[in-house]
Amino acid sequence: MGAVQSYRLRNQRKRWRIRAFRKRRELRAVSDRTNTIKTDDILLFSTLRNEKVRLPYFLKYYREQGVNHFLIVDNDSDDGSLEYLIKQPDVSVWYTRKSYKRSRFGVDWLNWLQMKYAHGHWSLVVDPDEFLIYPFCDTRPLRALTDWLDASSIKSFSAMLLDMYPKGRIDAQPYSEGQDPLEITSWFDSGNYMISKNPKFGNLWIQGGPRARKFFADKPEAAPALNKIPLVKWDRRYAYVSSTHMLLPRGLNLVYDEWGGEKASGVLLHTKFLDTFTTKAEEELERKQHYAASIEYKAYAESLAQNPDLWCKWSEKYINWRQLEILGLMSKGNWA
Amino acid sequence: MSGTMPMNGTMIDTGRGPVGIVMLVHTALDRAEQVARHWYAAGCPVVIHCDKNTPRGEYNAFRSALSDLPDILFAARHRCEWGTWGIVSATQEASELMLAQFPQVRHVYLASGSCLPLRPVEELITYLTDRPRTDFIESATTADVPWTVGGLDEERFTLRFPFSWKRQRHLFDRYVAIQRALRTKRRIPNGIIPHMGSQWWCLTRQTLSAILQDPERSTYDRFFRRVWIPDESYFQTLARQYSTNIESRSLTLSKFDFQGKPHIFYDDHLQLLRRSDCFVARKIWPHATLLFETFLEGKHGARERTEPNPGKIDRIFAKAVERRTRGRPGLYMHSRFPNQGWENGTTSEQYSIFQGFSDLFEDFEPWLAKATGAQVHGHLFAPNRVEYAGRQSIVGGALCDSAALRDYSPRAFLTSLIWNTRGEWQCFQFGPQDNQDLNWILARDPNAQISVISGAWAIPLFKSNRNFAEIRAEAAELQKIENTHLKVLRSPYSKARIRIWTMADFIESPMEPLQTIIDEIGHKTLRRLTEAPKMTDLTGFGQFLQNLKNQGMHPHLMGDFPVVQDPVGLQSKPRKPYLVQ
């Protein structure tokens, strides 16, 4: 990488940070418990809208993994999400009515909160429908992972987004509050992913899975990105560029080995395709607040009307992280 | 002795046992306290050195927490940074204190705060008492061990390292480079031979005091002060000077990964640690409550004790290093995306590509499937759709038959297919009408078995009912493509097992090459092939080629076909499948 490009990226990083700083005014602290954050706490950041039904299990899942504090931006929910979050002792909530799209899909808001609160902490950025799986997550808490990453001088940890889906129509099994969504969306595609390298930011760009197969089989370039780097030992100089797909400085994106080895990595189980999805897709299409003029949601709406069964006879049923590791969807790396 | 601070004045209880523990601690002091109490309870005097980087408040709390135990001493604090001299001088001072204050101590065991005794301490004491003259210290010459990381082995001793590797990496690397360029070399004092090994040793009083009281000590100290990672070489080298009986292994189970940092043990290693029969293990994760409870609170079941046997643990960690450095061949994922040439295998398993066979033989796919038991696909790279075996629309790993998805990333398609079907040999048809993007990748892949009957693409044209002008144009195009492909296959960079026949050569004696190809495909049936695939009727093919030539398009890839009739081996009647013994 030349000095010029390096300089440009540096400027770009600064622009994102300034932008995040300006966008701070869009956030209003509704319940600020950040004074309870201790020096080595693991923090979770999330933006959400109308996810009340998912929240109880989401919080439970990450509490059990060992997240110490949740920092959440509520984007104008009207289903009681905000009220629910305010009652949680380990959650700080900010409210905004402003445009999700114009905050670059929540990235600006979270960049700001991370700049302010995550400096020096391990910071996990996930949506309420994403569940982190890492090696040994059934026997070791998240703190074991972050301690090991610290000891290995690793600053960022990747987790590919793995789309989970039910068998049968998406709306066939109703999801009830507090339920483990994996009981319904327990299937996934094990081996149809496509990877390329992004020369500018140095990150990998991954597409594939059921969404590419079902909704984008004839226009694969439009299929959604599945590469994510959700867990980062945050520094206030860092900035997410686009969702959690990539960061600056770009060294943080080098979460993969280029010389044949495997680095340790995890998976984000993406439980988007619950019965709540059909209504959500319609609503999001209406609001046009999603990426690339909601092209994804347009594609969903078209296909969903016809045959919303993502399951096929080669779908794999989720068992545990060891299964994912054997299938080559994640790796223990040199963590043993 | 400066800075030594016995807790109870100078007179020390000498009723303690023959094994003294020198403990180096810096974090997780609550665990360190637990471990110190455990050693103490078994009758071992303990001298603790706490890193000066540990905040004063924490240190004081730690000291006062242990103040109820008279024979736990604290040595003066040094700043210990990884890879620097501080750790050695801390060890020296703590050892001196141990030897001076506890005259009955025969063996000094160097441990850290994250070391955990796995067997009852009494067993360690008995073990050492049975071997009163033995020094347990891993110690090997630099030339003989592959441990070193980062290319610094002998240079650890011949270069100077005044800069911190952790904090001043740039300066560190620069200074090494400069010294290499200038070829400066330090003189190794008194002709000692540098040895290296695990930092965690157990030395006898005789050896240890000989090292510490050596009249030349200041010379050695001056030398090792600028050596890289002296804690892995100071005692290891000097013990060789004095010891009469070195057992070159560490009693502390400690595994290192490919970057030279220790592997960490967690609760889920409990059974492994139990079965290892090692005396002490490190490093233990401070929050591994189950391990501390089990091993410190004596919840072991009684079991037959043997010599330490960490074999299984060794294998697990060796595998982890292997995974991190070599990875699983043929796997592409979000934490393994090798640069070209570093894949350690482009694909995960062997597979076969057949070019021209399904044009020449009418029932080639079912025949091949029957003969080999392999999964036989059609043209996987066909322009309209992926022709999976049985023309399924989706196969293992949920790969679908969309040509657009496949062509978006042909390499991902191929490597995924081979990865998803591990354990089952894949065969597929290929031809010049298919997507050619992968030609180089396939040719360079040692897992690929590529068999080509060149020019066989002309057969479908020959059989087609199309206008000759069209046929001529397409033949020219296909010939050009196949020619390019053959050049790739014949290039010196090709690593696949490649066999190319012209069509004329092949049909002369088809069974022999078929037998060879099939023998290579896993399922070894020792029988010879009994059934040949049915060759298509080629009557008039020679004339067809001549017609192309007459039109100015020279088909050359199929070899020499007689113009008029009956190329050798072809009857004028449709031939029957024949048997070959």
Structure report:
- The complex is a heterodimer of chains A (336) and B (581).
- By secondary structure, chain A is an alpha/beta fold.
- Chain A has a single domain (3-326), classed as Spore Coat Polysaccharide Biosynthesis Protein SpsA, Chain A (Alpha-Beta Complex).
- In chain A, 30% of the residues lie in helices and 20% in strands.
- Chain A contains 9 helices and 16 strands.
- A 7-stranded mixed β-sheet of chain A has the order 1-4-3-2-5-12-7, with helices on both faces. In chain A, strands 6-15-8 form a 3-stranded mixed β-sheet. Chain A has a two-stranded antiparallel sheet with strand order 9-16.
- The longest helix of chain A has 21 residues, at 3-23.
- Chain A is globular.
- The mean pLDDT of chain A is 90.
- By secondary structure, chain B is α/β, with parallel strands linked by helices.
- Chain B folds into 2 domains: 19-270 and 279-297, Spore Coat Polysaccharide Biosynthesis Protein SpsA, Chain A; 351-550, Rossmann fold.
- Chain B has 22 helices and 19 strands.
- In chain B, the strands form 6 sheets. Chain B has a 5-stranded mixed β-sheet, with helices on both faces. A 5-stranded parallel β-sheet of chain B has the order 14-17-13-18-19, sandwiched between helices. Chain B has a 3-stranded mixed β-sheet with strand order 5-12-11.
- In chain B, helix 3 crosses helix 7 and helix 7 crosses helix 9.
- The radius of gyration of chain B is 36 Å and the shape is elongated.
- Chain B starts with 18 loop residues before the first strand and ends in a 31-residue tail after the last helix.
- The model of chain B is unreliable at 1-14 and 567-574 (pLDDT under 50).
- The interface between A and B is large, with 60 and 51 residues.
Which key phrases capture this entry?
heterodimer, A: alpha/beta, seven-stranded mixed β-sheet, three-stranded mixed β-sheet, 9 helices, globular, B: alpha/beta, five-stranded mixed β-sheet, five-stranded parallel β-sheet, 22 helices, 37% helix, elongated
